Amino acid sequence: GDCFFYALESAQKPWHHPRYQVDLASTYRLYDKVRINGACYWLGGVEVPEANSSKQLEDVVDVRLVLEYQWSSRFSIFCRGENLLNYRNERYLHYPDRGRRGMISFSYAW
User: Fold this and answer.
1) CB 45 within 8 A of CB 52
2) What angle do CA 78, 101, 90 make, to 5 degrees?
3) What's the confidence (pLDDT) of residue 31?
């Protein structure tokens, strides 16, 4: 994890910058062709200006999972899911997260 301390010259506060961030990630290879990646991302202490004061946004928590099948040394298929806890994260003021997201794709190397 990281804790951030900002040296400011002209701004009142470090607007839109986090005070702390924690990332946990792990990869597990199941058999020879299946790989599972999991990650948890936590970011907090973000202050934003609002009218004549400031507001601290709620912490952002994101849990991600990737399943990958290595078809051959050149071709693989993967499925990725983000924000699996379906939190309504708001990283920037008035820009909420869209909820769960997923993607299915492939990669080919030549």
Assistant:
1) no
2) 140
3) 87
Element (H, E) at 70: strand 60-70
DSSP string, 78-106: EEEEE-TT----EEETTEE--S-EEEEEE
Contacts of residue 98, defined as CB under 8 A and 6 or more positions apart, other chains included, come to none
Assign residue 71 a region (left: φ > 0; alpha: ψ between -120 and 50; beta: otherwise): alpha
The most distant pair of C-alpha atoms in the chain lies apart, rounded to whole Å, by 59
Phi then psi for residue 2, to 5 deg, are -130, 140
Q: Among 29, 37, 36, 107, which Cα is nearest to 72's? A: 107
Whole-angstrom distance, CA of residue 12 vs CA of residue 69: 49
- Give me the chain's average pLDDT, please: 91
pTM: 0.77
